[in-house]
Task: structure prediction
Amino acid sequence: MSESVLNLNSSLESLKGVGPNKYKLLQEAGLSTVADLLDNWPRKYVDYSKLSLIKDISPGLVTLKVRITNIKARWAKGRAIHLTEAIAEDEKGDRIPVIWFNQPYRMNSFKSDCLYYISGEFKANSGKLNLTNPTVEEVKELDQINTARIVPIYSEKKNLNSRLVRSLVLQLRDVLTQIAETLPLEVLEKYKLISRKDAIWQLHVPESNVSLEMAKKRLAFEEILTLQLAVQKNRQFIQKLSAPKIQFDLNKTQELIKSLGYKLTDDQRRVSWQILQDLEKSEPMNRMLMGDVGSGKTVVAAIAAIQAIRSAKQVVVLAPTEVLARQHYISFKTLLEPLSAKVELLVGSIKSQDKKSILENIEKGQAELIVGTHAVLQEKVRFKNLALVIVDEQHRFGVNQRKELQKRVGEGQFPHLLTMTATPIPRSLALILYGELDQSIIKSKPPGRIKIVSELIPGASRQRVWNKMGEELKAGHAVIIVCPAITDTDASSRVSAEKIFEEVSRKAISKQYGAGLLHGKLKPIEKEQIMTDFANGRTNILVSTTVIEVGIDIPRATLIVIEGAEYFGLAQLHQLRGRVGRSSLPSYCYLVPANNDGIPARLRYFADNSDGFKLAQYDLDMRGPGQIYGKLQSGALDLRLFDINDPELIKQARQAAKDIINSNLKLTKELKSNIKKHQDLEYLN
Result:
């Protein structure tokens, strides 16, 4: 098949140089069609575009136009390294030594009458300045592939190298006309954006650094615009719904607050009032409550819940796991049952006979606050008058889930929605991702909570961990040890919970104070028993995986040891640290890296900082939004080029989204599809 009849759906087998073996390699990397290849964007670039004369070069990356002469091959003395050495001579007659390691084919790959571009690093080697392992390419009239240009570097997954990808992409110039424009012409003109087809080509084959930046801006703009349009449409959807008005009950609120035994923080009072005002409206509340670990979000949620219950309405609290659901059940039961509220737990592991009774109580309205996992939204669960849904540790409740809830409430009605998260989200990112949600933030912690002492403990100092464990256990406190894996495997060097538990079990403290092993593969009833034993003090050492990341509230737990700390993200580490320090007792977090070849800077930053919002911003700056929020349980957040530190682009994209909706501009089929995908996202954990 010739290049001229290629289209976006053409198989990569149609391209020159792609035989059965290379096609299989491409398929293994997820590339089967021309469209796949064009959508496989470079991960970085090396600038070899500046052509130099030999007399002008200095140490660093260089590109020269030369003849290659005096080619010799030899083995390095006393070492199993093959050397190919040559002299590169430019048009001015100046010369420079060139050397390739373990590339014997170079010996016979040069023609004496040909000019070559060589690009590489000019540096000292064995005490002499030379060009080491340069890329070589014969000078051609048309596009160079690997030299004398800004060279794209692709993700080299499944042994697929960038050289092959570059050679194939350059065959696709004629296919560009088939790439449809996704943005309205009015938007392109107003914000001075290049076309989608030009942007994609410049991303793969940049003519200059300026054209590359224009391409990145165009595609990043579309990423943010798509999200903002989804946000605006979600807001429109919500505004068309009506919700039951829940009147503020001052007496019951004061009764609940008095029962706490401590004063609310200023942040708790402020966000509680925001929520109470939302509940009195006929438009559904749609609020995200962000609070750092241990900031007292549950009390705020209870203040909202008691309003609904006193108005003869039902409340649902949704948690992502049974462990967290059971913890919430205990918390809400403790807070609300003294006020005569009827609290029920509905999770998968409850016996069928008990479940039948709970379902009847829900349908009759006798269960006033129901705590559970997403099973609560199943068809067989019937509510009498659901008015408030509190969603914990799920950052997005998609349109489909809202419609499912609507079925449970009645035609034209929708419950108020309060989403809680203990994963701090930088404000810039929160506005982009959750613009349809009103946002409340609790930063301060309740009185009596003290700072957790965080320390890095290298492997050589491991005895310190055992000594500290002994001290805390002797004082009547509890210890948590967290590991990144359940079991040892040949393919992983990660520290396993089973291995650490085995080590703990051999120690005398295990027999004296008792130890338990908790991980995700255990049956729900086994997990419950292990947690009950730990909560009641029958065991005082808990070895676990991140199943305890949220949902463990044991005030006497004062030491958490995080094994293989480098395998956890900062948000995870912060959540884990929050499993201790839940009382006025001095508490400690020990980070024990599995590798001692150098402790990552982010672990040092974590040990020095306890503010979750600072940690989240640091993580965002280091890794970018795509990596932090890109792993979704439903859908895919596509932020490949967006730079969170570009406020002007964010501002422009948000304004463009409003203009499109207000002017009712016609959208392309592809853009509509991408908008709907983002509207339907459920989770960003």
Observations:
- Residues 209-239 form the longest helix (31 residues).
- Residues 50-148 form a domain with the OB fold (Dihydrolipoamide Acetyltransferase, E2P) fold (CATH 2.40.50.140).
